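Ex. 9. Protein: LLM class flavin-dependent oxidoreductase.
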Amino acid sequence: MPDYGHPLRFGTFITPSAGDPERAVALGELTEAAGLDLATFQDHPYNPGFLDTWTLMTWVAARTGRISVSGNVLNLPLRGPAMLARQAASLDLLSGGRFELGLGAGAFWDGIAAMGGPRLTPGQSVAALSEGIDIIRQAWDTDARGGVRVDGEHHRVSGMKRGPAPAHDIGIHLGAYKPRMLRLTGAKADGWLPSLGYLEIADAPGANRIIDEAAQEAGRDPRMVRRMLNLSGGALLPTGRGFLQGPADQWVDDLLPLVLEHGFSTFILGSDDPRTIQEFGAEVAPALREAVEKERASAGTATGPARAAAALAARCPGIDYDAVPEDLRGHAVEPGDRAYTRLRHGYMQSGRPGLVLRPESADQVAEALGYALDQDVPLNVRSGGHGISGRSTNDGGVVVDLSRMNRVEVLDPDTRRVRLGAGARWSEVAAALHPHGLAVSSGDHGGVGVGGIATTGGIGYLGRAHGLTIDHITAMEVVTADGRVLRAAADENPDLFWAMRGAGANFGVLTSVEAVAAPVGDVVLAQFAYDASRTAGFLRAWGEITAAAPREVTAFLIAAPGRGGSGPVARAMVVHAGDDTDAAVAALEPFLKAGPVLDQSAQLAPYPAILPRGEGPHTGAGVPASRSGLLSEVSEDTARTLAGMLASGATYFMQLRQVGGAVNDVPADATAYAHRHQAQSLAALASPRTAARLDERWAELDGAIDGMYLSFDTRTGPGVLSLAFPGPALSRLRGIKAQYDPHNVFDQNFPIEPAGD
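Predicted structure tokens for LLM class flavin-dependent oxidoreductase:
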């Protein structure tokens, strides 16, 4: 049987002894330390001498950070598939995508029956396992409509709610030996996991043939089923005594034919001996990988991911899928993959990209960028995908998704230096920095990606106390259009550093930033609801109160038209950036005078608690018509104009986000974001169908608008750019664009034309 071309994986098969519970956990930790890929555990729930395997896996997952965990294999008759689906998805989410699901049809029926489980015949147990797999798959498929429905002979669910979706595409592998189980493996499973001792190597070709034929009958490529093997009875010895009884080089010689002739690619060591586990990871695994790589290169073995016929048909023209760089293949997602729906959309923008690449290093970003530019399709880059204007997905093109580049590091607590991956969400940043008493000023939603704000500005709840996000940044790592990985700082590529802070989407792919965080612990969050029926007077009062507030206070206001005969209502989030509650009360009391208060609350809270997490997948809610402008003040004329806009129904959502304070301490020419004297950032949203009406009303603000903030505007073109980058700033940006991106590769997010074009 030929080599199926899967990358090699190595793991351990650990006995979950209840007599020494810490030993089983320690062996799981040793599995990771030895450089292996997964720790698996026997599952015999009827054995009182064993720990419960599910509890043990959870414990080991919490004590490790890289390896996957799996049952070897879980006893389905005693673990109902509906609950198992929820448990598996939960553990996968909690571990960051490090769970794999090994299932067995059942054995030792006396023990199963003694615990209240069903006593099944071999045929019934296979049928029950098939039904269970259907339930689990449907429960994980949160994109399908309706509830889970399986009307089986052994398992029935009727309308079970789907979800949660796992963090990654959990593989289901089956312990199988007999023809019925092998056929089920080929038809529905992702892996086949027999054990030496129960499987004779001479029987492997026949078993593989049954799996392959069943896969083809189900419309699957046989390579979609990974061949795995439990290595029982082996010993690493100084001299050879037989099969898998000898030194590491003999193990390599014994295992190599299993890869090349029988297609096995995952080897799981059945041993509880620490020394054997260490040697297996340090000596056998790397040597076997090297030997297999050499043989595959010589034979020209296909090693790309296998896909079903339906998935191949969903591929987009203009993309050479076979040319995806090797380092990116393992996490690449395309139409037909189970992870595709979670990655195709942005927060507002719907998309159907042909390929989503998910690098985890700057070098991989350079590879992804080089590959994408060789394709005849659009290119978009995604940090968090939360932007209102929606530039992080496309139809039929390549998306470079940075979500795996989400590390948050405290480099030096004393100087408050931190490094943030461009794919991290701000809720992750806040949570990681808070134990150190630190924070970086960010937006008002935790689901926003670092890369988006760090290249645009960063107007957030700490703005007046600590400035914009870009004001904290001291260095950036950027991959440019020609594939170079550059450091941009005040003393290194300073022109690029200047441009990236405000117009960064035009110059390269930001992969990480270094910043100086602010000392922030708890803050006081006040929330107000106002009757804004007298809208103009209310807005004028709001402008005066916010202008007089101390710089520790940053206030955001949202106003919406009246509904159902009631007048407009306004809601405010006001943050006092400190834990001095007496000072906070004094600073917040004036906000009670802005208008009739319908509701109010105030609480002392950790900074991370005030950022909505929003880390789930985006669903493409629909790109609105959004307009943005900066105001130096909320004058009487401006207040009347805004009140008229709200009353007319031209906007369904209006927001004033306060700036000033520390934001305006920075010189206007210090960054590409040049707006350092304004007091408010204004945004108004409408349905695209009523965009013309919004524009008519927006034009009435021409005398008051003094610049704009790109993140809240869906327009493009010269008029928008001249507002965003006034006078000398735009000219300078065009010159820098000509230097770093002369061919305008990065033209999706408020594009700036290179000088000379």
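Check your answer against this statement. Residues 312-401 form a domain with the Uridine Diphospho-n-acetylenolpyruvylglucosamine Reductase; domain 2 fold (CATH 3.30.43.10).
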